Amino acid sequence: MRSLRWTAGPLLLLLGLAILLWAAARHAPALASGGPALAGRVLDFQQQPVRRARVTLYLNGEEEPYTEADSQEDGVFVVDLPTEGVNAVRLVITHPHFYPTTWEAMWEDLQRLHDGSAIRLPDILLRRRLTAGFWVATLTFVGMLALIATERLHGTMAALLGVAIVLGVSLVGRPISEGLFIFDFEQAIEYVDFNVIFLVMGMMIVIGVIEETGIFQWLAYQAYRLSGGRIWLLVTILMLLTSISSALLDNVTTMLLVAPITLQIGLTLGVDPLALLIPEVLASNVGGISTLIGTPTNILIGSYADITFNDFLGNLTPGVLMAQAALTLYVLLLFRKEYRAASRMASPALLAQLAENARITRPGRLRKAGGVFLGVIALFVLGEQFHLVPAVTAILGAVAMLLIVRADIQEMLKVVDWTTLMFFIALFIVVGAIQEVGLISLIAAGLSTVIGGSTTTAVLVVVWASALFSTVIANIPFTAAMLPIVGFLSSTLPGAGNKVLFYSLSIGSAMGGNGSLIGASANLVTAGIAERAGYPITYRAFLKVGFPALLITVAVGTLWLFIRF
Predict the structure, then answer these.
(1) Centroid of chain to Cα 315
(2) What angle do CA 209, 215, 219 make, to 5 degrees?
(3) Are 275 and 335 in contact (CB under 8 A)?
(4) Is residue 2's pLDDT more than 50?
(5) Is the model's pLDDT at 211 over the cut of 50?
(6) Which residues contact 394 (CB under 8 A, 6 or more apart)?
(7) Would you place residue 32 in the very low, low, confident or very high pLDDT band (cuts 50, 70, 90)?
(8) What is the four-CA torsion angle of 261, 264, 270, 272, rounded to 10 degrees?
(9) What three-state secondary structure class fits 275?
(10) From CA 504, how far away is CA 410, in angstroms rounded?
(11) Residue 13 and residue 11: Cα distance in Å, rounded?
């Protein structure tokens, strides 16, 4: 058992590094051999690179191709030619989701090739075509969102069903009709962002070790002691504590830790526990925006747009503090009757039980785990100077936590929420399907028409569309689908190169998660804990409180974006 404990951590690290290196190697561009060659770039009509376009070279009018190559991540391709005997050159560029196009060498091009030169072709533009696969991928994505929103299926099950449909239709349907092809399994895996997967997994292990010490329950109880029994002050402290914890951990983990002790505090003080729980979850969704690891949506955005821990911290924290202040005032006004009616005198027996449940159970482990956790946060802040990506920082932290604290690896792997990780993987593949067939491009083109070249309008559209859609669609799949669209707008709109639209997406999707019970994962987690305790949170009850909170916080967040950028 001990040997397993000491070897599993390094093995996890090696596995993570191996997958990251494999992903990097797959995107390494092809190199020419130094002789005559043709090089070019394949783009769509939105000037975005087209990867995996098949470039087929025909020489001297022959029907059989001389060689083939695929365009890379940036749309670039290189094909080598023989050094002599070339009298005619024809390139045919094909892709399952575009109309084919042909390029033929002119007399001047042939002369340069005879001299042994390489020719850089003008950009080759491909025109999209809507195949049967387009409709399969689109309907599958819409159906997945509907299942998640209506809770007819668990979110992970709905996403896995989507993967089964798009891959099943692609692989089984392709022999029947080429138009049914979406992508193959290898291409689907390329859409999975392993930076996100390993970042989430590593932080789950880190937090799982710390959770066992009882520190989070202790902090919640200290909030009660600090408030002196004054409910309005207690709520303010709990919201602030939850917000800070969400920035350093993540909002889902934070609510898992503080919700049980909050229920006990509410019952002890004679106040409706939901009047404490709902403000906490609202604060967790707002506070998590401050950092890369604070919300699942920020993890997605940071990985896609190369936004670092420090970038989120510096650019969004002031706006988050403004929104948090406005949210706290709103909550105190909304629940003022409940807080006034709460008993000022709690049962001594209940208070004693509350204090007992909030004890730090393993102080020795807390000292070690706390040191490792502070080191992880320091690496998140400083790691970008050493080109240390967040996923590797999280894995290093997990391995260090297992080795230093000497936790049981088998027990620690149980704290990893494999259901959530599978949800992310399946979600990446389904969103990759609609990106592959061109639905994302069509939506981006439509938004570009509405925005009309104005970055100001783009900020407003992205923030508010993200916030409002997140009330009916869980913000994680919505954010994943929006990333390529925001990426296109950022590359084409003047003044959007500072990534303001990605920050707009972060604010809109995370704060928009407060609009409804299904808007954010933290909401559903909190509702589940409350229901098991006998205090169910209905969709209507949450909407009544959360939607005005959405309007207030998103308005403040939008104001901050215009101040900052």
Answers:
(1) 18
(2) 150
(3) yes
(4) no
(5) yes
(6) 198, 199, 200, 201, 202, 203, 206, 293, 376
(7) very low
(8) 70
(9) helix
(10) 40
(11) 5
Distant-in-sequence, close-in-space partners of 555: CB < 8 Å, separation ≥ 6? none
Q: Look up residue 151 and give its amino acid.
A: E
Domains, the chain, ordered by start: 37-126 (2.60.40.10), 132-190 (no CATH), 194-564 (no CATH)
CB within 8 Å of 537: residues ≥ 6 apart: 274, 277, 278, 517, 526, 527, 530, 531
Residue 163: its pLDDT value, please? 95
Q: How confident is the model at residue 556 (pLDDT cuts 50, 70, 90)?
A: very high
Arithmetic mean of pLDDT, 502-521: 89
What does the alpha-carbon distance between residue 309 and residue 292 come to, in Å, rounded to a whole number?
5
CA dist., res. 557 & res. 242, Å (int) = 19
For residue 55, list its beta bridge partners.
Answer: 69, 93
Closest CA to 213 of 43, 382, 371, 434: 371
d(CA 101, CA 236): 63
Q: Let me know if 289 is exposed, middle or buried by CB neighbors in 10 A (0-12, 13-18, 19+).
A: buried
Q: Are 440 and 430 in contact (CB under 8 A)?
A: no
Q: Which residue has the higher pLDDT, 31 or 405?
A: 405
pLDDT at 350: 56
pTM: 0.72
b/e code 203-233 from CB counts within 10 Å (16+ = b)? bbbbbbbbbbbbbbbbbbbebbeebeeebbb
Three-state secondary-structure class, residue 69: strand
pLDDT at residue 15 tops 70: no
Residues 6+ apart with CB under 8 A from 89: 38, 57, 58, 59, 81, 104, 105, 109, 110, 113
Across 107-116, 184-193, 434-443, 555-564, the highest mean pLDDT is recorded for: 555-564
Amino acid identity, position 527: A
Give the end-to-end CA distance of the chain in Å, rounded to a whole number: 54
3 state SS of 73: coil
Percent of the chain scoring above 70 in pLDDT:
90
